[in-house]
């Protein structure tokens, strides 16, 4: 009969007969095998645990050790147990091969020193065969329908839209086509059956986006091209991918995608010379209608369209900054013409964000170890933004949605707010920012930045 109990982490033993690998002889070997099998995935899981805690719907399942009743062998949850052990003692990670991973665990340990998990809610079984019934179902072993029914990519994207407020590329395209009067009924009725992995692979290619007359701004599809022309091209893309004869080989790499657009159905090629009245974007809310910049949304809240201004920060932004250097940069970003000095503004914008975040981290002593400055704390920009967002959220100084939105954006490599984009502004000699993108980025960050400086004395 199963029962629940809080068990000290030090009393949990990683299973030496874990189904993930062959049987090993010791705890060290079990940890090393898990490390070899999972590598960086362990750190991703550790970060998630530190941010959200352990999954309350999925307890670690154990059985008492036959050699010492004070210890328990983990039957289900060995990855989580390994993560927690590494978090509490990063020195368990041995070998030059994992030096980088060990450093990351050490930093995570330092940042969360006061919140490390020392005991875990566990389900204890008297007989491991009882646990095997549920472990098998969880991992897809058993009659179809009895275990957890996994989501397909589109279902996962719908979940992400609801929980993170970020609508995937595929869902945006599906909404646009289903709402358009120019799309055949057959395509509308079948569009949700599309292989979203193939669709994303195509649309993620900047050359394909240029060909179709669309671009990404903060994860949202936007266009300056007439909507009918964009719909025409996207309809053909969906039609192609829905064709049973279509395979990923046709779009697998850059050369294949180049061939794909060169052989595109001629009647469906978008005429990118036909401009829209103004920049428009696909609404990421429950409405399937595209949002046109010249038509304000009604009750549905959409992502901001860049206003027709030439300065990154609008004069209407009221921000009190007590740091002389940061304040000077703030006013420069209100004065410099971003349409004429785009690269300069991009670099200065990144500097402004990092110095602002550093000021907050230092004001509230949020560095992982005693450090003279946030710049020397060892944290990168994404980590510092996450620390600040978590602190603002915990203190209830900022709306949770604002904090979650910023955190989600900085970790998304395709997002304008993504860390890769920030680095590219400074370090990539082939990457040229767009004035509109910079303005959109500021519009999406403004509330966060205002709240940040409001909480620095």
DSSP summary, beta strand count: 9
As residue ranges, the low-confidence spans are 284-307
Mean pLDDT: 84
Annotation field: number of helices = 18
Largest sheet: 5 strands, mixed
Task: Write down the secondary-structure element order.
Answer: EEHHEEHHEHHHHHHEEHHEEHHHHHH
Indicate the structural class: alpha+beta
Residue fraction in strands: 5-15%
Task: Indicate the multimeric state.
Answer: single chain
| Widest β-sheet, arrangement of strands | 1-5-3-4-2
Number of domains: 3
Helix coverage percent: 40-55%
**Radius of gyration, rounded?**
26 Å
Which word captures the global form?
globular
Kindly report how far apart the N and C termini lie: 57 Å
Q: What's this, in brief?
A:
The chain has helices spanning 27-38, 40-52, 78-88, 99-111, 128-138, 153-164, 169-179, 185-190, 196-203, 206-212, 227-242, 254-262, 324-335, 342-363, 381-394, 400-410, 419-427, 435-454, and strands at residues 3-8, 12-13, 60-64, 72-76, 119-125, 215-217, 220-225, 275-282, 290-292. It is α+β, with helices and mostly antiparallel strands and 457 residues long.
Could you characterize the architecture of this molecule?
This protein is α+β, with helices and mostly antiparallel strands. The chain folds into 3 domains: 3-138, Conserved hypothetical protein from pyrococcus furiosus pfu- 392566-001, ParB domain (Alpha-Beta Complex), CATH 3.90.1530; 153-292, no CATH class; 324-454, no CATH class. Helix content is 47%, strand content 10%. The protein is built from 18 helices and 9 strands. The protein has helices spanning 27-38, 40-52, 78-88, 99-111, 128-138, 153-164, 169-179, 185-190, 196-203, 206-212, 227-242, 254-262, 324-335, 342-363, 381-394, 400-410, 419-427, 435-454, and strands spanning 3-8, 12-13, 60-64, 72-76, 119-125, 215-217, 220-225, 275-282, 290-292. The protein has a 5-stranded mixed β-sheet. A 4-stranded antiparallel β-sheet has the order 6-7-8-9. A hairpin with a 7-residue loop joins strand 3 (60-64) and strand 4. Helix 2 runs parallel beside helix 4 and helix 13 runs antiparallel to helix 14 (342-363). The radius of gyration is 26 Å and the shape is globular.
């Amino acid at each position: 009969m199963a029962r629940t109990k809080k068990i000290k982490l030090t009393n949990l033993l990683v299973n030496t007969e874990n189904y993930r690998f062959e049987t090993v002889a010791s705890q060290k070997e079990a940890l090393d095998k898990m490390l070899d099998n999972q590598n960086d995935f362990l750190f991703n899981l550790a970060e998630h645990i530190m941010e959200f805690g352990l999954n309350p719907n999925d307890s670690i399942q154990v059985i008492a050790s036959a050699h010492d009743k004070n210890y328990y062998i983990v039957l289900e949850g060995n990855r989580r147990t390994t993560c927690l052990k590494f978090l509490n003692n990063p020195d368990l990670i041995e070998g030059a091969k994992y030096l980088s991973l060990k450093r990351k665990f050490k930093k995570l340990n330092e940042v969360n020193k006061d919140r490390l998990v020392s005991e875990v809610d566990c389900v204890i079984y008297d007989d491991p065969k009882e646990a095997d019934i549920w472990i098998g179902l969880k991992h897809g072993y058993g009659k179809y329908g009895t275990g957890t029914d996994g989501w397909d990519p589109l279902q996962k994207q719908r979940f992400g839209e609801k929980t993170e407020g970020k609508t995937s590329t595929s869902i945006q395209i599906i909404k646009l086509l289903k709402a358009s009067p120019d799309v055949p009924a057959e395509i509308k009725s079948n569009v949700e059956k599309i292989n979203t992995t193939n669709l994303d692979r195509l649309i993620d290619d900047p050359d394909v986006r240029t060909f179709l007359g669309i671009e990404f701004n903060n994860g949202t599809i936007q266009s300056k091209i007439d909507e009918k022309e964009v719909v025409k091209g996207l309809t053909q893309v969906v039609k192609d991918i829905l064709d049973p004869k279509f395979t990923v080989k046709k779009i697998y790499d850059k050369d294949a995608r180049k061939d794909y657009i060169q052989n595109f159905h001629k009647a469906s090629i978008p005429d990118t010379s036909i401009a829209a009245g103004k920049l428009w974007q696909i609404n990421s809310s429950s409405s399937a209608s595209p949002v046109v910049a010249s038509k304000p949304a009604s009750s549905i809240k959409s992502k901001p369209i860049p206003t027709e201004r030439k300065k990154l920060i609008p004069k209407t932004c009221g921000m009190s900054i007590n740091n002389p250097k940061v304040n000077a940069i703030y006013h420069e970003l209100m004065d410099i013409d971003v349409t004429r000095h785009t690269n300069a503004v991009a670099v200065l914008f990144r500097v402004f964000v990092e110095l602002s975040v550093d000021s907050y981290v230092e004001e509230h002593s949020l560095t992982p170890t005693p450090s003279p400055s946030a710049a020397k704390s060892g944290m990168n920009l994404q980590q510092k933004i996450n620390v600040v967002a978590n602190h603002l959220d915990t203190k209830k100084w900022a709306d949770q949605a604002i904090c979650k939105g910023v955190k989600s954006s900085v970790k998304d490599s395709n997002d304008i707010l993504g860390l890769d984009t920030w680095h590219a502004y400074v370090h990539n000699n082939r990457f040229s920012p767009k004035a509109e993108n910079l303005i959109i980025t500021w519009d999406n960050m403004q509330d966060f930045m205002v709240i940040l400086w409001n909480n620095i004395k």
